[in-house]
């Protein structure tokens, strides 16, 4: 629950609407009990035919008699010397009498202060009195509903603010986390956390501030008023409370466990769904639709099982609370009915009232206990919501606390632009900590060089690029720029020097203009068009009906492979960086597109460091130097003949 408490504390950043919501809960609870108690004078009027004036006069007379009796008992209780053995017992008795006397005196003053107002403003006819009381009850109910709606809206606003804040923080965490950290949860995990899990947290916050305060307050309001009418009869109705408490604690643990498992299963559900949607072409091309449908059935079957179990335990809460409420109601009603019918003050030798109960008192106690059972029933749903929110918080906050391993230095160093050289010094790197992808690599890349990196798949070529961009840090050795470790530069300073065109360039489902401008968002439309011309992309873009406003579709699916790569190159050229990296950028394009890309690189690749990972023999014509990466080792070659890999 510690993580859930963090969410509850964060909610107080919105202290004004939250405080107003809680205040509405108090007002609503007060009106809930007051509406029931307000029926007491109406019942008295109907039974005895009195008006409120005579009813209050009787209360004043009864209170005066009780004050006089208590005062007599208090005065007659004489304390012996402190050395006497009965001193402490009599001291306690006198203190209790004094407390009762003060309470009755306060009640008497209250009735006496009300009497002039009652005499002046309230009707004297019994029926008019009943009508007035009923009208006040209706008005109180309307007010109660208004404050109830206000509480719901205010608390919902706060919970949605927290949910939005958590979603923003998770998204920020995802885009700033190092690759190892992101891959530990994956796209599906982050998607599930941002959607389903965060909704669960919002539900928990709403249940706590909206229900866990409002419903108990309504119960307390009714019980306190019932205790004021007859505290012994009210206590008798709570005889089953310990048993209900034990059952609710057991059920609470079960529901919390089910909520955690349901959220865990939702991660697997999102994993299968997003994985298939992102590779739909591969699924259909390999006729694996039935296989993926079965995989999805299995993941949703597990979710269904957990959902049914959760529904069972949630449904079990209602019978427990309702049975307890009815048992409490029947116990108190039986005791009160016995006292009214027999006009006794004791049950089984136990004093229940100071004087026989009246029908009006019985009706009010009965009404108050009925009023307590309705919020008691709702409380089970509130507890379920809090458990779901707690389970969600236990998934979300460890993720929010996760620290990226690739961080800016406390005191970053500044380098001039352009750089002079990139160096790998005794670099060893492993993704899993067990198998080295690069082993003791030493490599120097002077500024302005066009370096071709060749070698078999899995040899470590792309890893070199990942280290230059500092997507990862090597376990041993150092990557430097101008004799300065990359760890001593800010990520922004380093990556603003680099532009990448990869084999599978990524696109947003936006316009061509949007996707090119993504390389440098502040660029003007004229600069975007100029970059497209440099990348030999302007001509085909102009042929589209909407030109640069043409939507590329999800991940650029409406474009051919060559068009995609030329737009990606335009984005890289728009960045106008000192380091340009091509990671298998021409491997999957046609010969015409490949030639156009090569021409663009020859024309605009001067004055920058060009690193090209390639399996294409034609790309070597661009290179001033070639190195081969094989099984983690880098060797320099004078010439190389590439084979299909």
Explain what you see:
This protein is of the alpha/beta class. The protein has 2 domains: 2-51 and 123-401, Up-down Bundle (ABC transporter transmembrane region fold); 421-637, 3-Layer(aba) Sandwich (Rossmann fold). 65% of the residues lie in helices and 10% in strands. The protein contains 19 helices and 12 strands. It has helices at residues 2-11, 15-37, 39-48, 52-76, 87-121, 126-176, 179-212, 214-237, 241-278, 280-285, 289-342, 359-401, 461-468, 491-495, 512-517, 525-534, 538-543, 561-575, 591-604, and strands spanning 346-347, 350-351, 421-430, 436-446, 450-454, 476-481, 484-485, 498-502, 579-583, 609-613, 625-630, 633-637. Strands 8-9-10-5-11-12 form a 6-stranded mixed sheet, with helices on both faces. A hairpin with a 2-residue loop joins strand 11 (625-630) and strand 12 (633-637). Helix 9 runs parallel beside helix 12. The model is unreliable at 640-645 (pLDDT under 50).
Q: What is the overall number of helices? A: 19
Number of domains: 2
The separation of the N and C termini measures: 54 Å
* Average of per-residue pLDDT values: 82
What CATH architecture of the largest domain would you give? Up-down Bundle
Low-pLDDT residue intervals, each spanning 5 or more residues: 640-645
Helix content: 55-70%
Number of strand segments: 12
Radius of gyration, rounded?
39 Å
Question: What is the fourth-level CATH superfamily of the largest domain?
Answer: ABC transporter type 1, transmembrane domain
Percent range for β-strand residues: 5-15%
Shape: elongated
Helical/strand content category = alpha/beta
The CATH topology of the largest domain comes to ABC transporter transmembrane region fold
Largest sheet: 6 strands, mixed
The strand line-up of the biggest sheet is 8-9-10-5-11-12
Q: What is the CATH first-level class name of the largest domain?
A: Mainly Alpha
């Amino acid at each position: 629950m510690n993580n859930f408490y963090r969410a509850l504390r964060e909610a107080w950043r919105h202290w004004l609407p939250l405080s107003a919501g809680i205040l509405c809960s108090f007002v609503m609870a007060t009106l809930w009990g007051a509406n029931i108690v307000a029926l007491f004078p109406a019942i008295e009027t109907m039974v005895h035919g009195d008006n409120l004036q005579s009813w209050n006069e009787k209360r004043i007379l009864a209170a005066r008699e009780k004050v006089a009796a208590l005062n007599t008992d208090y005065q007659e209780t004489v304390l012996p010397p402190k050395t006497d053995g009965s001193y402490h017992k009599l001291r306690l008795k006198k203190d209790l009498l004094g407390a009762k006397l003060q309470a009755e005196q306060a009640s008497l003053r209250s009735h006496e202060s009300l009497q002039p107002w009652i005499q002046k403003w309230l009707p004297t006819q019994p029926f008019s009195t009943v009508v007035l009381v009923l009208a006040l009850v209706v008005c109180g109910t309307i007010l109660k509903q208004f404050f109830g709606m206000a509480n719901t809206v205010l608390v919902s606003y706060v919970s949605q603010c927290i949910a939005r804040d958590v979603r923003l923080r998770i998204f920020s965490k995802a885009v700033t986390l190092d690759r190892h950290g992101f891959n530990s949860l994956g796209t599906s995990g982050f998607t599930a956390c941002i959607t389903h899990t965060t909704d669960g947290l919002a539900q928990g916050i709403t249940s706590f501030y909206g229900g866990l305060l409002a419903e108990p307050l309504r119960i307390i309001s009714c019980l306190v008023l019932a205790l004021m009418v007859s505290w012994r009869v009210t206590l008798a109705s709570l005889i089953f409370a310990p048993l209900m408490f034990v059952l609710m604690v057991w059920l609470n643990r079960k529901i919390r466990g089910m909520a955690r498992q349901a959220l865990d299963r939702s991660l697997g559900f999102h994993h299968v769904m997003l994985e298939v949607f992102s590779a739909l072409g591969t699924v259909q091309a390999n006729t694996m639709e039935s296989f993926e449908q079965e995989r999805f059935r299995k993941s949703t079957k597990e979710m269904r099982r957990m959902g049914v179990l959760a529904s069972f335990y949630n449904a079990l809460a209602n019978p427990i609370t309702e049975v307890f409420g009815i048992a409490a109601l029947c116990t108190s009603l039986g005791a009160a009915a016995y006292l009214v019918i027999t006009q006794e003050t004791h049950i089984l030798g136990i004093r229940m009232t100071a004087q026989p109960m009246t029908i009006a008192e019985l009706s009010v106690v009965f009404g108050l206990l009925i009023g307590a059972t309705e919020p008691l029933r709702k409380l089970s749903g509130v507890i379920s919501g809090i458990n779901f929110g707690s389970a969600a918080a236990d998934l979300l906050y460890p993720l929010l606390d996760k620290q990226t391993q690739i961080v800016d230095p406390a005191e970053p160093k500044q380098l001039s632009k352009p750089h002079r050289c990139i160096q790998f010094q005794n670099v060893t790197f492993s993704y899993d900590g067990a198998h080295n992808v690069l082993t003791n690599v030493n490599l120097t890349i002077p500024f302005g060089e066009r370096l071709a990196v060749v070698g078999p798949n899995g040899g470590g070529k792309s890893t070199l690029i990942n280290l230059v961009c500092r997507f990862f840090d090597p376990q041993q050795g150092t990557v430097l720029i101008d004799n300065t470790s990359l760890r001593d530069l800010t990520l922004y300073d380093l990556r603003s020097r680099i532009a990448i065109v990869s084999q599978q360039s990524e696109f947003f489902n936006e316009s061509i203009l949007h996707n090119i401008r993504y390389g440098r968002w502040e660029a003007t439309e004229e600069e975007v068009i100029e970059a497209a011309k440099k990348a030999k992309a302007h001509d085909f873009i102009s042929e589209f009906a909407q030109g640069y406003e043409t939507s590329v579709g999800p991940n650029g699916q409406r474009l051919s492979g060559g068009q995609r790569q030329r737009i990606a190159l335009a984005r890289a050229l728009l960045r106008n960086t000192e380091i340009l990296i091509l990671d298998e950028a021409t491997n999957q394009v046609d010969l015409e597109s490949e030639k156009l890309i090569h021409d663009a690189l020859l024309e605009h690749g001067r004055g920058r460091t060009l690193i090209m990972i390639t399996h294409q023999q034609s790309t070597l014509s661009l290179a001033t130097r070639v190195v081969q990466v094989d099984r983690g080792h880098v060797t320099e070659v004078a010439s190389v003949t590439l084979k299909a890999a």
